[in-house]
Structures are given as C-alpha cells and as structure tokens.
Amino acid sequence: MAAETTKTITPEMVAEHGLKPDEYQRLLEILGRTPSICELGIFSVMWSEHCSYKSSRVWLKTLPTSGAKVIQGPGENAGVVDLGGDDAVIFKMESHNHPSYIEPFQGAATGVGGIMRDVFTMGARPVANLNALRFGAPDHAKTRHLVNGVVAGIAHYGNCTGVPTIGGETNFDEGYNNNILVNAMCVGLAKKDKIFYSAAKGVGLPVVYVGSKTGRDGIHGATMASAEFDEKSDEKRPTVQVGDPFTEKLLIEACLELMATDSIIAIQDMGAAGLTSSTSEMADKGGVGIELNLDYVPQRETNMTAYEMMLSESQERMLMILKPEREADAKAIFAKWGLDFAVIGKTTDTGRMVIMHKGNVEADLPVPVLANSAPQYTRPYEEPKKLAKILPEWVPAPNAVLGTLKTLMSGSHLASRRWIWEQYDHMVMGDTVGRPGGDAGVVRVHGTSKAIAVACDVTPRYVTADPEEGTKQAVVETWRNLTAVGADPLAITDNMNFANPERPEIMGQFVASVRGMGEACKALDYPVVSGNVSLYNETNGVGIPPTPAIGGVGLIPDATKLADIRLKTEGDMLIVIGREEGHLGQSLYQQHATGKFEGAPPPVDLQSEIKAGRLIRSLIREGRVSAVHDCSDGGLLVAIAEMALAGGDHGLTREASGLGVELYPYEGKLPAHAIWFGEDQGRYVVEVSPQKAEEVLERARLLELPARIVGRVSGNALSIKGETALPLSELRTAHESWLPKLMGA
C-alpha cells in the first residue's frame, strides 16, 4: 500500500478538511471503515458547502425552474433556454469571492474562466460576459488594491479569450470591507440539436482528460470557499487557482470542433473539486462506475500524489466520455490546438469510483453515495423583522434639487463606472449592440435577425432591510432592464451571497430571499434555470450584506427594433410611466439627507410591473418611443440625468455633450423632492415626439398605469423652474471623475 493510503486520520486532519465531528462519524458509518487520506479529501470537497449546497438545497427546491422555453434547468453545468428556430441560449452566474479577496487578479480571472467553461461544456460558444462586483468603502485601506486587481483580472481573461464583457454592476459599501464579492456571468449560443450533457451513459467507455496539465494550484479551493475568513486568510493563497486565458481560447475551439463530430457522450468542466466532482457527478448521472489510473493524468509538477491530483483545481481542464474507437480522432483535434489529451480511465458496471496510482488503490467508493450522501440541513432560522415605512415628509427637502442631483451623481453609489468598463473589450466578435452604461447589454444572434439582452442586478441595502421584498425587487429590476431595451424576459440565473448559515438570523435572510425570488419569478413567468450559492462570506464573525445577485436573459425578436437610454431629438417630450409615491426609505437621497439608510425598502407590485412591461415592449416595437430608461437607484431625476448625459449623436462616448432637459415643476400632493428622488418601483421614462405624447399617455391610462409629462428635451443643461440650470458639461465632469480620482488615474 502507498504511504499516502495508510496515513492515520486524526481529528485535527478531519477539522482541516472542513468536516465537523458528526459529519466524519456519518462518513465512517457510510463506508463501514476508516477512509484513506485520498478518500477523506474526496468526501471533504464533495460535502463542502460549495459543492453540496447542504444548507441551501432544501430551500432552492421551492423555486420555479421550468417553463415553456426552458430546455434545461438547474442540475447541469448551466441553464438552457429556447430562442426559437434552431437556437438556444446557455447561461449561468457563479461566485469567486474568497479567491478574489485573497488574490484579486487571479481570483477574478479564474472566476471568468470557470464560468465560461460551464457554458461551452454544453456546446455553446460564449458570446457575452457580465460581472457583479461588491467592494468595501472607498476609503478602506484595501479597496483600491482590490478594485484594481479584480478589474484587471476580469479584463485580462475576457479580452484574451475574445469574449466581450458587455455589462454588470459595481457597488461600494463598508459591509464588504473584509469580504468582497466577485460574481461572474457568461452567456453562450448553441444549436438545439447540439447541446451536450454530463451523464456518462455506457460501460467500457474511455474517460478522457483534455486541456492543461494538473498542478498543485487550487487544492482545497472548494473547502476554502466554504469557510469564513479570519486574520490568517492570506495564508490561503495556495488555494487560489492560476488561469491562462490563451489556453482557454484553444480549449473552446478544440471542444467546439470535437462537438461538431459525433464523438462525445458526456462532457464536464473540471471546476470546483476538479477531477473529484467531474468524475463522480458524471458517473452518478449516467448510472455507471468509473475507474481512473492517475498515472496517465498530465502533470506539470513532480511527485504529485493521488490526493493532490483528485483535489487540484488547476484551470482550463475538461473531462469527457467518448464513444468507442473515437480516441484517435479526438486526440488529433486536441493535438492540432496544442492541448493535452489523455485516456485516464474507463466507465464500469460496478457503480464504484476506483482510483489507482502507481499500482495502488487509493480510493474505492460507491458512486451514488459519493455523489448524493452529503448531509442536507434544514438549519434553524429567524424570520427577519419588518421595518416601518418612511413617509416622504419625514425626510428633509434639499436646498437645491439640481445641486443635490450633482452631489449624488458624483458620489460612490452613482458615479460613472466608465473607468471599469473601458478596460473590457465589449465589441470583440462584432455582434455587441451599443456599449455598457445602459439598462442591459445586447448581442445579436449571429446570422439571424434576433438578439439577446442580458442584465444583472441587486440592491443590497433593500435586501438588508427586507430580504424577501429586496430579492423580489432584484428579480424585477433585471426584468425591467431587459424590457427597457425591448426584450421579452426569458429566465434568470442567480448568485446567492450570504454570511454564515449556522447563524439563525443569516439563515432567516436566505429563506426570506428565496421566498421573494420564487414569488417574483412565478408571477413574471421568469424561471430560475441555473445558479450558485456562496455562504460563509464573513470575517471574524462579521458578515456581508445579504446579496442575491440576479442575472436575467431576454430575447429581442427583431434586432432592428430595440431601445437605449440615449436622448435623441430636441423638442421631444419625456413621460414617466408608473406609480409615484415618493418612497424615500432606503433611498440614496435618504442617506444623503440624513446620513443613514432607514425603514422599509420600496415595495414591488408585480401585476403593475407586468402591465408596464408589456406596454413598454409594445411601444418600442411599434416605434412610438425613441429612448427608454427604467427608474432605479436615485429615482426619477437620476434616470433623466443619465438619459441626458448619454444623449446626442455620439452617446456614451466621453466627448458627447449630451442633450439637456427642461424639467417641468411637480404640482402634485407629495413633496417635490420625494418625487424627484424617491425610488418607487415599476417606473420607466420614455422619450416621445410631441405628436405621439398624448397617444402614449392614453395607452398608459387605459391600463390604469399613471403617466405624466415630466420635461422636454432642450439645450445642453438640466433646468427646473426657480433653480440655476445645471450644465451637462459640469454634471458630466462630476459624474465621470469620481472613480478615476479614487483609483489615482
């Protein structure tokens, strides 16, 4: 027997592997014997929170995951949705939070690489990347370093693989000071008759390893991602993977070339837990056993043990099951692309995973037990307390509305993220429509008249105040952003970022959040087709704000009929559609005026959202509106200002002067500042010609949707009666300069 196999398992060793004493006792009872060190490592990663979802699975099962357009829901590498004709869209979002805090460049880069592999392993060519980033307070000692590294890592990997990064969001909040969030989303396109799955069906078939060689980077990555941080976190650098985007590009092309043949039975990315998860999950889904000889695994380091090879999370690797006699053809393709190709095992009828190394059996485990025996916890939870609504008159009015607008738009919450997205190649591949900065990214479905729209959103301060309502709002915000460009929302992926689920108040946040997501998705016919749960996001017992990031995908049937936020024509009217209640609780204006966020977040009316969304999509497709923007952070006036700054013939370029707006004074019953800065949900601002304004107002009224004219496109400033006009050039300078100044650019 190898020395590795015969190591004595101690309680300290069990704890180092992230298993609690009762979980280890469960393992002993399942096996009926003491595990080898390799077997302990295998179970430790398969039972980690990151791989097993042991605290969340019971709640995730309550989400709506099917629908008329859903081809594949959760349970595969990514979700698959029908785009009509021969086309399908494949997408998923996943976290790389802990690695990105420890090593921001490689952590973020390998997050992008990993999520792309989840998509192309199913037969899709990746066509768009997005990211949702949360950093600490701007003045925190680590923030600048982390922003710089994460953005550079995302840009490096996406740009080098030639996949455009077309959208995302970035927040700054002290709640993320010691635990940033890096959520990466990838969207790919495939033909419906060429979608690949991971079930290894058949006996005696070759198990093939392709891609990069295996090293010692990333060992215990899944376990590290399932534990909270402490002052020793920097010691975990060896568990952060190292990526090579140029190899990933070769791997994409080689896999897609092989997929065009009829050689592959099953294929899986070697992601979290590497060879361990890919082999066990493929064998379990196919109802077979699997036998591996690790002597044949391509290795870039000497004297690697079975334990290290099974747990390594080295990047740019795939595992596939080939049809008989197809090895030579497949090997020739991977040799052409300069990639490793090795037959490392075969499928069996034993139902067991047997790991051989240097003539020794290092692991011999029942596949169904390995894949499905992780403990499933229904953890104790406390329902979050409901906060009182803040009445508009409780929040003091500003001295000057436009001066307040300038202050808000030049601060950390609303300042332009151009410094970030200009580092990303968002036009590579030639199918991107427009640049980042609008409501949703849009990519044409190559060779067709269709396009897909993608967006990701969550407002963590809303979720902190009310996890159920805040998550409902996050779902609806993506739905609204897709609608605002003219897309029919199809489905979502999610990334549930929470603190320690063993604390009842945190588990209560998670349960309420899932409930809110489920309610919104059911009402909107907007199913959840993929996702990721990232728990234990805390340091020394201090957790992050609950952050359920939502990624939405929609279909634009005719890519010539879409909208953007850019104002187009002098003299056009601006109309706001949707209910106005002046909700200032948890608003950015409330923080500006009082120094804190208080009260309940703005409520979501799902039926009104549906009516408004249908109206907006109809107006876009009929050519009745020339610009559309939904109202979100900062409220109505911020939405109008963003449309103005984006306006003109060269919208969204730094040199654009924009088109100004003459704002009409509010004459209703609510305080004016609550109307301008309230964050009421379900609202859109549309630009219409004077000739069509009355028709648009009437169509809204017929649907019982409030609508009114709020201003007229005019000049090169924002003006409102009784106040000094705010030149767009002045607003642009303030809006654009905050982030470069923070980063020392």
> How many individual β-strands?
28
Mean pLDDT: 94
Q: Based on the structure given, which CATH architecture of the largest domain is correct?
A: 2-Layer Sandwich
CATH class of the largest domain: Alpha Beta
| Overall number of domains | 3
Net shape: globular
CATH superfamily of the largest domain: PurM-like, N-terminal domain
- Order of strands across the main sheet: 8-10-7-11-9-12-13
Round the Cα radius of gyration to an integer and report it: 26 Å
Would you identify the regions where 5 or more consecutive residues have pLDDT less than 50? 650-655
Gap from first CA to last CA: 59 Å
The fraction of residues in strands falls at 15-25%
Helix content: 25-40%
Judged by helices, strands and strand pairing, the structural class is alpha+beta
CATH fold label of the largest domain: 60s Ribosomal Protein L30, Chain: A
Q: What does the main sheet amount to?
A: 7 strands, mixed
What is the number of helices?
25
